[in-house]
Design a protein that fits this description.
Length: about 160
């Protein structure tokens, strides 16, 4: 059986260096499906329903609709309450795919829960930065061909004028 050539990415966050390897494809798909469910469930309240009624074409671009960005952000926030957010954090910060080299370490070690709790106590921003880095490592190719958020917001700004 041939093993995949998996590239480990590293990033310095705070005073530590993190080494992240990609999840297996099935784990990535499962997490992606759960994340998109959180995001897309908030889209229903963000699109002006009267656009659907007044629209004469079914092939109208999403950029031609009145979209409430605040409703999207609010919806995502409502869907990521306490236990759900912690569950996502635990799934993203998986010790089997992340190692850490602290200034006191000679070599990287697995990011075990006790180390994670110690490192991120009082440093929630660093934990979120690590979560973002893990998502980048696992989904960079998925987002390459999608328009970036600033492009969508720019188009919406032009449309509203």
């Amino acid at each position: 059986m041939e093993l995949a050539n998996v590239e480990i990415k590293e990033k310095e966050i705070g005073e530590n260096v993190y080494f992240v390897r990609p999840f297996p494809p099935q784990k990535s798909l499962e997490l992606l499906g759960d994340l998109q469910a959180v995001v897309t469930s908030s889209l229903d309240t963000a699109v002006d329903k009267k656009d659907d009624i007044e629209s004469n074409t079914e092939e109208e671009s999403v950029l031609d609709r009145n979209i409430n960005i605040g409703a999207i952000i609010s919806g995502v926030g409502k869907n990521l309450k306490g236990p759900v957010l912690v569950n996502f954090a635990n799934r993203i910060i998986d010790k089997d795919f992340i190692s850490i080299k602290r200034p006191s370490d000679e070599t990287p070690v697995k990011l075990e829960k006790n180390i994670s709790d110690n490192i991120f106590a009082g440093r929630l921003k660093e934990m979120l930065q690590l979560m973002y880095f893990v998502l980048e490592v696992n989904y960079a190719d998925f987002f390459e061909n999608l328009p970036d958020l600033s492009g969508i917001l720019q188009e919406l700004g032009i449309k509203k004028k």
